[in-house]
Specification:
The complex is a heterotrimer of chains A (about 180), B (about 350) and C (about 260).
Chain A lengths: L1 E9 L4 H14 L3 E6 L9 E9 L13 E4 L2 H7 L8 E5 L13 E5 L1 H8 L5 H13 L4 H11 L7 H19 L1
Parallel strand pairs in A: 1-4, 4-5, 5-6
Antiparallel strand pairs in A: 1-3, 2-3
Helix pairs in contact in A: 1-4, 1-5, 3-4, 3-6, 4-6, 5-6
Chain B lengths: L3 E4 H11 L4 E4 L6 H14 L2 E4 L3 H13 L4 E5 L1 H6 L1 H9 L4 E7 L15 H6 L9 E3 L4 H18 L2 E7 H5 L1 E4 L34 H21 L3 E4 L7 E4 L3 H15 L4 E6 L1 E3 L3 H8 L4 E6 L6 H7 L6 E5 L8 H19 L1
Parallel strand pairs in B: 2-3, 2-4, 4-5, 5-7, 6-7, 10-11, 10-13, 13-14
Antiparallel strand pairs in B: 1-8, 6-12, 9-11
Chain C lengths: L23 H15 L5 E5 L14 E4 L5 H11 L4 E7 H7 L1 H10 L4 E6 L29 H4 L5 H6 L5 E7 L3 H19 L4 E7 L3 H4 L3 H15 L4 E3 L18
Parallel strand pairs in C: 1-2, 1-3, 3-4, 4-6, 5-6
Antiparallel strand pairs in C: 5-7
Helix pairs in contact in C: 1-7, 3-4
The chains are: A alpha/beta (about 180), B alpha/beta (about 350), C alpha/beta (about 260).
The complex binds thiamine diphosphate and iron/sulfur cluster (SF4).
């Protein structure tokens, strides 16, 4: 099994961190992982994205033209990455900032108002965690508990941020799971 | 030690520190800035030296000085910066000094762009600086391999008293993969009794590349050639994939491009088309003998590169032009995709048949 | 109707890629205004450096060359020696000019090349993501000086105007700032003067513009303006260092070399 997911959004929305946390969780579980960022001038204030690959076999190409899944936090990212998805993939869409729907009927769409949920949980900055939780909820690509552990580990030096981030993960996860049922 | 998820640039920095590369001089350039940023924090912890200096010209001449004084020194840069290091590289080779230079290649020529490329193959493999010299060139395809090659690079630099280049591309520098830092053991190295480290109890040493006497200069040239021949005998490294099954096509690729080829090979296998991969790990010395052997069952070879085909001539030389060598590549930071490689293999196979009919 | 504000002809109608609050744009405008005022646009050749302003050729409405990192003064020398009738100027950042390009700038100034240099001192490497520059302030944290610039280890920031003013060759050298309107007015005058001297074939011109880089300083644009005022102005005094009009024979001949 190999899954590829592109996390994409504006610079500063935390898509790089969300991807890194997923890759780390996979690594801790003994899976093969790669995290590949977009880099370059477009990063400055523009869009940012990273591709995470999680698999059971050593990962050959770190570049994927057609990812299985995407988690998009803004409109330009949806427009760019949803058309590239392979059929049957999962698209997690941040409904707080994206008003349209992906123009496809061969994928599973998970709508999450990520910014709203994060603001209600205590900080809009944790919207990336809602997205990450929803993605794992919809795919079970890694066990949820392992992801939570990784997030706690990430914020070990800023312990007071743990509850809000975990809360956001959970809310997202719940929405993702619902789509699975 | 447990695996850690690290960016390639940071993994290279950490691996070098662990290999005793405690003297680093550098100048910022994308996409390798994380090396210096990591070392600026880490070197003070391990008692090493990190210095950001005025230019790559200065960096490489600092390597000359530090290596001449007998310490393990290294640097990293990216294509335009590497070009500026060519002056000292030639002097370093001539004065037979050990050092390691990592090139996280970006696109060119000229200022180019900062996306991944393999456009500096010729510069690294054929010389780059002036005069009759070579450098050992390693090309890692994964971060784990990069982490393994750094200690080897430092060891071989010292063992042969030669500059060693490590060629990665922007992807190697920027991506994250799990890495594990293992202990490496090498046979003892000869003492650096040639270094200018104080003449107490011995005759003065001179580190030099000036030879006005043609006889002496020729002697140096011949000595260097003998060294490169020894390196070619002992240091070739390569990897292969799918060569244990029947194959009609042999792909040749190095670094990250080789990984893209592996995905393409798996796809082609699903369609019943047998394709194998030969991956040079040392670009100099080029692993020609093994490549020649592996080329036998293939109908043709296909070099896949992020350049305009700089490696093709080495492949043709290795197979003595007995097999057709084709090329597929992308440039400008566009990376060949597995799909493109699949299509190219099929196109060439169809063409080969057509041609025979 | 009277037009009170319009784009200078020398400035292209093209959105820049600079970060919000970056002062590169202000200086671009001053250059364009100066060239328009002196009627030099059609003879002008700009030289874009390697740095955030690498795309400057998109933002001006006249000829441009793009240089290798630090080499803009060499290109300008080539242009002026080849075609003295052209008006050449190098637009360079602090990494470009005071680090990798130190040799080129000093030698061009010393030869008294008749071109103009606009030197953007923002105390950091902008384009590559905030590394230490030769002009980074003592104690200033950057990505390669994570504990603050340690002057014991890497020395003090270069004062380029003072350095170049120590050369005997006549020149126009002035340091200005572009972070507040009152300073911008002075900056404009200095830039006009530097170009005028070039047009009159008088001397080398060098205008250092203290500038901000909110992105890599990690500050809001507003805070960055204050930071410049508080930290850079005391170390980098704003004044004229050399002007052929006021000091036609700047230094008396000193003994020794001048045996004539
Ligand atoms: C030979 C070479 N070395 C390094 C670089 C990478 N590089 C690009 S821009 C830059 C420095 C930019 O800083 P500065 O000149 O201060 O201008 P700013 O971006 O702050 O405007 C560097 C080091 C390069 N392009 N070429
Ligand atoms: S990085 Fe700094 S110098 Fe460059 S455009 Fe942004 S604010 Fe301006």
């Amino acid at each position: 099994m190999q899954a590829e997911v592109v996390f994409a959004g504006f610079g500063g929305q935390g898509v790089m961190l969300a991807g890194k946390l997923l890759a780390e969780t996979g690594m801790v579980l003994g899976k093969e992982v790669v995290w590949l960022p977009s880099y370059g001038p477009e990063m400055r204030g523009g869009t940012a994205n990273c591709t995470v690959i999680v698999g059971d076999e050593p990962i050959a190409s770190p570049i994927v033209r057609n990812p299985r899944d995407v988690a998009v936090m803004n409109r330009p990212s949806l427009d760019k990455f949803c058309p590239l998805m392979r059929p049957v993939g999962v698209a997690v869409v941040n409904k707080s900032l994206i008003t349209v729907d992906p123009d496809r009927d061969d994928i599973t769409v998970v709508n999450v108002p990520a910014n709203q949920i994060a603001i209600e949980a205590g900080t809009g900055r944790a919207a990336n965690m809602v997205m990450l939780g929803a993605y794992v909820g919809a795919t079970d690509i890694v066990p949820f508990e392992a992801l939570v552990e990784q997030v706690k580990h990430q914020f070990v030096k800023k312990a007071k941020l743990i509850p809000v981030n975990v809360k956001c993960l959970e809310e997202g996860y719940r929405l993702g799971q619902k789509k699975r049922a | 030690m447990a695996k850690v998820l690290m960016k390639g640039n940071e993994a290279i920095a950490e691996a070098s520190i662990r290999a005793g590369g405690l003297y680093y001089f550098g100048y910022p350039i994308t996409p390798q800035n994380e090396v210096a940023e990591y070392l600026s924090r880490r070197m003070p912890e391990v008692g090493g030296t990190f210095l950001q200096v005025e230019s790559e010209v200065a960096v490489s001449n600092m390597l000359y000085g530090a290596a001449g004084a007998g310490v393990r020194c290294w640097t990293t840069s990216s294509s335009p910066g590497i070009s500026l290091m060519m002056e000292a590289l030639s002097y370093i080779a001539a004065a037979e000094l050990p050092c390691v230079i990592v090139n996280i290649m970006r696109t060119g020529p000229g200022l180019g762009g900062i996306l991944p490329s393999q456009g500096d193959y010729r510069q690294a493999v054929k010389g780059g600086g002036h005069g009759d010299y070579r450098s050992i060139v390693y090309a890692p395809a994964s971060l784990q391999e990069a982490v393994e090659l750094m200690p080897l690079a430092f060891d071989r630099a010292d063992r042969y008293r030669t500059p060693v280049l490590v060629l990665g591309d922007g992807m190697i520098g920027q991506m994250m993969e799990p890495v594990e830092f293992r202990e490496h053991e090498f046979p003892p190295l000869p003492p650096k009794d040639w270094a200018t480290d104080g003449c107490k109890g011995r005759k003065p040493n001179v580190v030099n590349s000036l030879y006005l006497d043609p006889v002496k200069e020729e002697e140096l040239n011949r000595k260097l050639v003998a060294k490169y021949e020894e390196i070619a005998r002992k240091e070739m490294k390569s990897d292969e994939y799918g060569t244990d099954k029947p194959y009609r096509v042999l792909l040749v690729a190095y670094g990250t491009t080789a990984r893209i080829c592996r995905t393409a090979i798996a796809r082609l296998a699903e369609e019943g088309i047998g394709v194998a991969l030969f991956r040079p790990i040392t670009l100099f010395p080029f692993p020609a003998a093994r490549l020649k052997e592996l080329s036998r069952p293939a109908e043709f070879l296909l070099s896949v590169e992020m350049s305009t085909g700089q490696m093709v001539e080495d492949i043709e030389l290795a197979v003595r032009c007995r097999k057709p060598v084709h090329f597929y590549g992308r440039q400008g930071g566009l990376v060949p995709t597995p799909e493109e490689v699949v299509d190219e293999v099929k196109r060439l196979l169809a063409g080969a048949k057509g041609g025979a009919a | 109707m009277k037009t009170i504000f319009k784009r200078p002809e020398a400035l292209a109608d093209f959105p820049t890629h600079y970060c919000p609050g970056c002062t590169h744009g202000i200086t671009h405008r001053l250059i364009a205004e100066a060239l328009d005022e002196l009627g030099l646009r059609e003879r002008a050749v700009g030289i874009a450096p390697v740095g955030c302003s690498v795309l400057a050729f998109n933002y001006f409405n006249f000829d441009f060359q793009q240089a290798a990192h630090g080499r803009a003064p060499a290109l300008a020398t080539g242009i002026k020696r080849g075609r003295p009738d052209l008006i050449a100027f190098a637009y360079q950042g602090d990494g470009d000019l005071a680090s990798i390009g130190m040799a080129e700038i000093i030698h061009a100034a010393n030869r008294g090349e008749k071109f103009t240099v606009i030197f953007i001192n923002n105390a950091i490497y902008g384009m590559t993501g905030g590394q230490m520059a030769p002009t980074t302030m003592p104690g200033q944290v950057t990505t390669t000086s994570p504990f603050g610039r340690n002057v014991e280890d890497v020395g003090y920031p270069f004062r380029m105007c003072e350095l170049l003013a120590s050369l005997r060759t006549p020149a126009f050298i002035e340091r200005v700032a572009v972070h507040r309107p009152k300073y911008i007015v002075k900056a404009r005058k200095a830039i006009v003067k530097a170009f005028r001297y070039q047009a009159e074939n008088r001397c080398f011109g060098f205008v250092e513009c203290l500038s901000t880089c909110p992105t890599n300083w990690g500050m809001t644009p507003h805070k960055a303006l204050d930071w410049l005022e508080e930290n850079m102005l005391p170390y980098y005094p704003l004044r004229n260092f050399k002007d052929p009009e006021t000091d036609e024979n700047p230094e008396p001949a000193q003994g020794g070399g001048d045996a004539s």
